[in-house]
């Protein structure tokens, strides 16, 4: 018998998550005869007796059935092969659900039958052979890429296509960190949340709470190129960067390899796309309090629901309040976050979601400890009152979608935001007496405003046997920045008797005073093609970048402009047994700042990747296994000009060749797992700096991780994981080597029952063994995060 699959579309209104249900064996037989694959919207609450059928416009039968199920809150099973190419006359609304389904199916030769688990669409002719005893089917829910999912397994993602598409059918490597993974590990930062993903390196600068430092396939991906909900979170200047609290995310998607065809200027290693929590009746409400070492105190909540009886208007609000320190006790780790959102289903074809966020945070501006030569001490050289990174940010945006008909729909995402940053720290120098440090006050004061938009037309149509999903769009970003960099006098500090509360004046001697304005725009198209079990994709993009810098001290104004064309090709074959081999090719570009000795602006670096891989999702399971081989090249890298030592030329090249293995599985209702292994063979293949043929700095050859969460009977649960980072070189000459290290994480949780359903008490520890490690880069050394322990009490309903 062919495998029966259950596919889910994102629900407009539902009140419970999809769960596999028992279907009559007759239904199984009928669906098998129809071609095996069943499409099933997410399981909703059982319809009330006498429920009225919703109004559905005429159009594609498959779309009409899906919309009917979503609006009526029912489970509706059907074979895509049986309904493909058929039209529905629609139905005006009113009457019973059975009458409404009959009108939708009029003229199709199909009928809807009610079963114990919902409705199923079958051929019009029935006989008694269908009436067999029930049997259980292990089904796999293919969830939405935007709605909450239970567990660690995510079937769909949006980053690679800007559409809601199964990962198994996408010819690119994608890792997804779900909200449940974030919650089980009790992490606050995105950097920590993705630490178990294949090909991802974190912690290269030790503990630096000012920003996330995430590298993918050997290339840094996040500074100034963060993405939230598919829109760029730009960064400019020095530390004017948007911050994202992990608790406010529904998921994090790591798309590996060049992705410029949909997102413009981007690292060749890939992108990290953060997906915000948004209104959904599938989401559970939660309140939680935490307490931990380093004076960690935190409270957070995530609540939502519907504002009208029909459920057309939904809301959700996420809040975080954290008052904490770091392992350097003078450095704060404070956050205040409020993120409300509202979703309005204006009509069956139109939806608007508004997302807002306000956040204040404070942490240390100089998390590094004092360094003597190449030796990192345990002494912090700052001042508790003066030393700080203080940031205030807010964003407001919307996501709008309207379906004109079964073929065309338009989507527009827009977000405006502002970030104000104060970064103050003390720069030490040795006085020569062995215990006194002279210090200078440094201040960096930045303001940034940004606007990001993405407007696209999604066209679904057929040309012969080819089924197309064509995405055609234009995105635009505008970034306005101002920067003041100043220096001043500061009192010295005695290492033997440090005083961390001395008066330090705000620095007033300007070292830089700059304004900047950037315009980034791009036109793109990508066609996703289905031909039987083949999945093909092809994309092309043209980008334009214009930057203006004003030096208010020197009176110099500079203007630069870049443009680039990038593309992507992919092919995948989907076997019936769940195997999906694929191959892909993609390019990227990333603008470079500065000019050469002739005053000419540097050209963008370019990325090019060849990748082959194999994905495997065993039918009927919530398991995804991925293996990929890649060859990634970055060109136009700056290197020394042999004819002019004061100049740099762009003839350098860096290559990463690697293997990635990843497994994510909800093995059972009690056991969940993520595991990964990455091998990267990086090499500087062209350079005039004396490092040609050597490994680039800070790129480990080996990364590995394993995390398990097991829920015992009677509410007790245990979780634990290990993260291994291989040795890497700390300088270009490869004469300094950073040692490898393994970090252990663990947790225990207890779910109360009886009258305390939804209450959980948990204890989590990161770096359980308190492993102390140091990572150096060109003479600067960084100490890794020490052990942290957090106790939490939460209530979900």
Which descriptors apply to this entry?
six-stranded mixed sheet; globular; 54% strand; zinc transport; 49 strands; cell outer membrane; 797 residues; single chain; Phage tail protein beta-alpha-beta fold; transmembrane beta strand; Maltoporin, Chain A
Please provide a brief summary of the model.
The chain is 6% helix and 54% strand. A hairpin with a 5-residue loop joins strand 35 and strand 36.
Description:
The chain is mainly beta and 797 residues long. The chain folds into 2 domains: 5-142, Phage tail protein beta-alpha-beta fold; 276-796, TonB-dependent receptor, beta-barrel domain (Maltoporin, Chain A, Beta Barrel), CATH 2.40.170.20. The chain contains 7 helices and 49 strands. The strands form 11 sheets. The protein has a 22-stranded antiparallel barrel. It has a 6-stranded mixed beta sheet with strand order 13-20-21-17-18-19. The two termini are 40 Å apart. Residues 1-49 and 126-142 have low confidence and may be disordered. Transports the metallophore pseudopaline, which is involved in the acquisition of nickel and zinc, and thus enables bacterial growth inside the host, where metal access is limited. Is probably involved in the import of pseudopaline-metal complexes.
């Amino acid at each position: 018998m062919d495998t029966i699959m259950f596919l889910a579309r994102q629900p407009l209104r539902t009140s419970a998550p999809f769960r596999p249900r028992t279907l009559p064996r007759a239904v199984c037989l009928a669906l098998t005869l129809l071609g095996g694959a069943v499409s099933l919207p997410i399981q909703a609450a059982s319809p009330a007796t006498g429920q009225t059928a919703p109004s559905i416009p005429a159009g594609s039968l498959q779309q009409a059935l899906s919309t009917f199920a979503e609006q009526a809150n029912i489970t509706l099973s059907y074979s895509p092969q049986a309904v493909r190419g058929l039209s529905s006359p629609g139905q005006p609304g009113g009457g019973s659900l059975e009458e409404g389904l009959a009108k939708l199916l009029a003229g199709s030769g199909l009928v809807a039958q009610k079963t114990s688990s919902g409705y199923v669409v079958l051929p019009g002719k029935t006989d008694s052979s269908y009436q067999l005893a029930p049997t259980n089917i292990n089904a796999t829910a293919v969830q939405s890429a935007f709605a909450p999912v239970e567990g660690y397994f995510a079937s769909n993602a949006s980053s690679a296509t800007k559409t809601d598409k199964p990962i198994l059918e996408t010819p690119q490597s994608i890792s997804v960190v779900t909200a449940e993974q974030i919650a089980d590990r009790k992490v606050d930062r995105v950097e920590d949340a993705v630490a178990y993903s294949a090909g991802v390196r974190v912690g290269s600068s030790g503990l630096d709470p000012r920003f996330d430092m995430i590298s993918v396939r050997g290339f840094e991906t996040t500074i100034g190129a963060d993405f939230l909900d598919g829109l760029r979170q730009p960064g400019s200047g020095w530390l004017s960067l948007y911050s994202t609290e992990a608790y406010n995310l529904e998921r994090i998607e790591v798309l590996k390899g060049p992705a410029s065809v949909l997102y413009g200027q981007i690292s060749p290693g890939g992108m990290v796309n953060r997906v915000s929590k948004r209104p959904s009746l599938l989401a559970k409400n939660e309140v939680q309090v935490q307490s931990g070492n380093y004076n960690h105190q935190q409270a957070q909540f995530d609540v939502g629901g519907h504002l009208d009886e029909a459920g057309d208007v939904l809301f959700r609000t996420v809040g975080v309040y954290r008052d904490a320190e770091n392992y350097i006790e003078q450095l704060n780790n404070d956050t205040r976050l409020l993120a409300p959102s509202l979703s309005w289903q204006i009509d069956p074809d139109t939806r608007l979601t508004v997302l807002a966020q306000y956040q204040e945070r404070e942490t240390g501006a100089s998390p590094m400890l004092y360094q003597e030569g190449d030796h990192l001490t345990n002494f912090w050289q700052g001042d508790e009152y003066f030393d700080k990174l203080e940031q205030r940010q807010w964003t407001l945006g919307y996501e709008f979608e309207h379906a004109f008909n079964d073929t065309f729909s338009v989507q527009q995402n827009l977000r405006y935001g502002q970030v104000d940053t104060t970064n103050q720290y003390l720069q030490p120098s040795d006085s020569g007496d062995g215990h006194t440090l002279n210090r200078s006050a440094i201040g960096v004061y930045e303001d940034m405003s940004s606007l990001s938009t993405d407007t696209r037309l999604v066209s679904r149509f057929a040309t012969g046997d080819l089924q197309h999903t064509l995405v055609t769009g234009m995105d635009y970003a505008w970034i306005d920045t101002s920067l003041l960099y100043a220096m001043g006098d500061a009192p010295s500090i005695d290492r033997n008797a440090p005083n961390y509360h001395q008066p330090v004046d705000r620095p007033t001697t300007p070292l830089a005073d700059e304004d900047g304005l950037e315009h980034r725009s791009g036109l793109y198209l990508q066609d996703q093609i289905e031909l039987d079990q083949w999945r093909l994709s092809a994309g092309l993009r043209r980008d334009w970048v214009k930057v203006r810098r004003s030096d208010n001290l020197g009176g110099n104004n500079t203007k630069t402009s870049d443009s680039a064309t990038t593309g992507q090709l992919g092919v995948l074959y989907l076997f019936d047994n769940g195997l999906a081999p694929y191959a892909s090719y993609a390019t990227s570009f990333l603008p470079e700042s500065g000019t050469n000795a002739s005053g000419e602006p540097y050209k963008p670096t370019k990325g090019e990747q060849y990748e082959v891989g194999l994905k495997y999702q065993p039918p009927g399971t919530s398991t995804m296994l991925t293996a990929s081989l890649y060859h990634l090249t970055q060109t136009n890298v700056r290197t020394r000009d042999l004819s002019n030592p004061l100049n740099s030329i762009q003839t350098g090249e860096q290559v990463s060749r690697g293997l990635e293995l990843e497994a994510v599985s909800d093995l059972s209702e009690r056991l969940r797992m993520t595991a990964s292994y990455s091998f990267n063979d990086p090499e500087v293949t062209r350079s005039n700096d004396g490092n040609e043929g050597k490994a680039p700095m800070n790129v480990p050859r080996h990364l590995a991780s394993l995390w398990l969460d097991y829920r015992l009977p009677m509410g007790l649960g245990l979780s634990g994981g290990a993260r291994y980072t291989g040795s890497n070189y700390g300088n270009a000459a490869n004469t300094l080597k950073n040692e490898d290290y393994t970090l252990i994480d663990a947790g225990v949780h207890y779910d109360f029952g009886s009258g305390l359903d939804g209450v959980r008490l948990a204890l989590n520890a990161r770096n359980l063994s308190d492993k102390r490690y140091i990572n150096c880069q060109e003479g600067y050394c960084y100490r890794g995060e020490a052990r942290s322990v957090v106790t939490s009490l939460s209530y979900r309903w």
